[in-house]
Amino acid sequence: MRLIEKILLAKTGDKKAMEEIIKSYTPFVVKSARCTFVKGYDIEDLIQIGQVAIIKAVNMFDVTKSSAFTGYVTNAIARSFYGLIRDNIKENSCCSLNSANEDGNQFIVAIPAEENIEEELLKKEEKLLLGKALDKLPKEDLELINWFYYENKTLEKYAQFKGICYRTAINRKRKVLKRLRLSFKD
Fold it and tell me: Which residues form the Helix-turn-helix conjugative transposon-like domain (predicted)?
């Protein structure tokens, strides 16, 4: 039996023809329902809404004007889901990031931040402490820190520049870092 004949029979009240039409478009309904989220509706509810849309489409389809029922019914199903979404979006509670989920947690908490504010604050605090600690260092120690950490020059070149033994430069650097660590603890 052709689809148009099934539609005509279903319009006259033939339940078997209506069931066959619903059965043939249910895979599309299921696929569309899986892609749709509406607060308070589960997949079975959405499938049922889609099947009701099929019944309405059968009853409203004019076979004399068009023979493209598939396009008509798929649009009707999509429109029914869009209408449901539109009706439920009007509720502010479903759209607020401060709304709570089933566990009682707000949605805003679940959104990952691109920056970690706590980590940034800790880094700023550490920089301030380091700056204060560096200000307390004698000029010669500060020169060594600048040479090695800020100018990225080697300790070997520092030892040559100062005319000291390389081992002395290593020990001096170690002592300076120990003083910095102690000033961090204060």
Answer: 7-62
Domain identity same for 31 and 71: yes
Q: How far apart are CA 29 and CA 33, in angstroms?
A: 6
The pLDDT tens digits for 34-52 are: 888 888 888 999 999 999 9
What's the DSSP call for residue 106? B
- Do residues 16 and 54 both lie within one domain? yes
pTM: 0.49
Residue environment code for 105-114, b if the CB has 16+ CB neighbours within 10 A, otherwise e: eeeeeeeeee
Residues 104 and 122 in one domain: no
Q: What is the pLDDT of residues 103-146, one digit of tens each?
A: 676 666 666 666 677 788 888 888 888 888 888 888 988 898 88
Domain count, the chain: 2
Residues paired with residue 100 on neighbouring β-strands, in sequence order: 106
**What SS3 class is residue 65?**
coil
Same-domain check for residues 106 and 121: no
Rounded to the nearest 5 degrees, what angle is found at the Cα of 72, between the Cα atoms of 50 and 12? 80
Are residues 66 and 11 part of one domain? yes
